## 1
Amino acid sequence: MSLLEQQRERAHLATGDELKAFLFHPSAEVLLGLLDNPALDENLLGLLLSRKDLPQEVLEDIAGRKTFLKSYAVKKALVFHPRAPRLVSLRLLRDLYLMDLVQYSLSPGASAELKRHAEEYVIARLPQLPLGQRITLARRGPARVVGALMAIGHAQVLEIALENPRLTEAQVLKVLSREKLLQAVVLTVANHRKWSQYYNVRLALVRNEATPLSMVLGFLPELTVEDLRALAAPGVVPENLRKYLLAEVHRRMQASRRIAKERINSPCGESLSQSKNQESPEEE
């Protein structure tokens, strides 16, 4: 029997301090033998899982034992382990408590794919959550979760969600693009000191049918002619708004022509015109 096999046998039978010493053994084979030790309790297993250098085969073996997975702490440690196999984390994510899912979605070391799954599990639970937990998520949650909370439309949650430092312009725009969005959401965004200043947010507010006409008209002078024309295309916005868009485009064009005419008729314009006329005979 080789030395490694002897150590595996010993790890299988060890108790007390000797067992604890085996938790830090570098060999995966010895650690796999340790997992069969009946004296390995939940606390010792948690200590083993705290090792960042734990081999993947050991993590897979732990994840495959139903007796170990009866412990929530073990499942959480497996999901959060930096070397956890993707399929193990994916399978156990759905079993995590709400705030642990939020914590995982904000973990810098977690993959983008698994973070997205964690966020989706949180979003799926939102309708059943009490107001207190929604407020906590609005204040501390990731951008996608905050956006989903905004769409629900609870006034108190909305105000807090818009102050979340993780909230992005992309998520605000995604919320505003939803069909049948509650007007309370639209009004809260439109009146917000920060988000109402974003050009693309104003453009989205103009597009949203829940935005009051009086508010839309206030935004029109700040939009580019190109965007006004795009919005005025048939079928983009309601017909009653479309006529205001076309009128604003017409007003801009008239103003542009007037400015051009004034420049031509100004003293500088006349001087430039005379200079050109004087040069032309010589050129001929």
Note: Residues 12 and 192 are 63 Å apart (CA to CA).
## 2
Amino acid sequence: MSRLGIFVDRKTLANAEQLTALIRCRDVAESMGHHAEFIFPVDINRIPHMDALFIRTRTDPMNIAYVAAQMADFHGIPVIDDPRSIQICSDKINMYSHLMKNKVAIPRTVFVSKHDLTVEYATNLFDTLGTPLILKEPSTSFSLRVEKVQDIATFFQVARRFIKLSDWFVVQQYVESKYDWRVGVLGGRLLYACKYTIPSVTFKIQASVNGHIVYCGVESVPETKVPPGVISLGIDAAKAIGNGLYGVDIKNSNGDACVIEVNDNPSIESGEDTCYPRVFEEIIAHLLAA
């Protein structure tokens, strides 16, 4: 009997949808003949005694989940997400650099430093990439610190705020769409696909509007109803990062698909897997076969 550790924190378990998904994951593992147990940060020293580790909490390098991933990796224990994937996906400049290197289609993208902040440079960005522009602070997650700017004055307001957090930030062409495809990829193969319908009051899948958080709608979509080009692009994007579990966000505007970003530790608790009931079984089999 193999032992699967599911790394969580109290914030994770405080969300009813996440808790339900985690219990389902545990039950699936046990139905497959494995022992599964939740590991909290205070229990991190139990990780070396596991046969595999599945991290289900925030994974940026400043979070203890990254320490858990490193601990598992050091002991040769298969882990999702692995430390390298966390490092890449938690830094948008690193992530887009990997996608560019592997010739994965993304919106036209420029990396901007604090030394570039001149009116002439900003004017050229609008002339080259169009209006509006999307600005992203590299450590952004959950659509935080992603802003749409319509003019040079707003560009500088947002840029100066981002430069206080990082020496560089990302500027991208704006691609308009009513929804994003989310392609879940595991080990270089399609795991699930869904649509994230963007709320009409924003351009992001999650945003704070008038003090309230608004979320995208989620619609699981069978593989046969997903454009093949979207699936192949999602797989190519995931392979550019690694061989783990990723959620690839794709816009398919006028038939031209492009990757908006690649997420490690993708959500699997809001109905993304409705048409793919074997998602947790496949993740567990992938981990324990490694």
Note: The domain at 3-81 is CATH 3.40.50.20 (Rossmann fold).
